[in-house]
Amino acid sequence: MESLIKFVQDEFVTKKEFPKFNAGDTITVYYEIKEGAKTRTQFFRGVVIQIKGEGSSQTFTIRKMSGTVGVERIFPINLPALQKVEINKRGKVRQSRIYYFRELTGKKARIKERRFK
After folding, report:
1. What is the pTM of this model?
2. Which of 59, 21, 63 is nearest to 46 (CA)?
3. Of 1, 8, 97, 102, whose Cβ has the fewest other Cβ atoms within 10 Å?
4. Looking at the keywords, is ATP-binding present (predicted)?
């Protein structure tokens, strides 16, 4: 049964190419919003908390602070409304799911930047 589901996903679901990102990275996601007959592009910039799933059913969670309130949003990787993903900063974290980031505030909520040689 799993192979049948995987076959259907590979054949019929259109794949979009996005840059590779991990937990701890700060990214900007541009997505389309429909309001009546109009469509507009909105962006959501935040830190990637987790990446879950594999293949076409993969999702990623982004967290940002809006004033003093934390806002999280889950995006499916194959959402038709997704237009592009930009990586603003690569973060250096030890875990692939950084749920502890939710409780941190102020200077403790900073993530070190990953340097490439």
Report:
1. 0.81
2. 63
3. 1
4. no
